[in-house]
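Q: Sequence in, structure out?
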Amino acid sequence: MRLFIAINFNKVTRARLLALRNELQSQSKRGRFSALENLHLTLVFLGECDAKQADAAKTAMDAAVFAPFYVSIERVGRFRRDGGDIWWAGIRADKSLLDLQSSLTEMLAESGFSTEKRKYSPHITLGREVVTDAEPWQIEAFGETVQRIELMKSERINGKLTYTKIFECGC
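A: Exactly. Output:
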């Protein structure tokens, strides 16, 4: 199963993210845009995992100690790619968020996971393979307080990308 550890948002935050996605989509010639229920902040991407690795991920999540912290969404940006860009809503790189992500990555590496080596860039993907004349823009910041993290399974069900929570823990 394909797994990742994420922060999922409440309905109010998702609605605001959806409005950003819709604004981007209306200015785009083409792209694959994230579904409302798939708007999340990935902390660590794990990839294909067996049941033993899933259990190790749950153990690492349980061991990650964190106090509630606020996630602030502040801008819309992109990662340039041939064939269309990845557009995202950018998160302020808050110390609490970065410490949580780093702690999870270290514990997972100790359990044998091969984790991302590049610097963590907290963002929420709004669309992939997007072709648009739009430029990145600042937004009025919004967000929410994070009190839990979730282990998510990613799969295609009837051709639709679906994320399912299989474990959660909180502070």
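Helices lie at 11-26, 51-63, 95-110.
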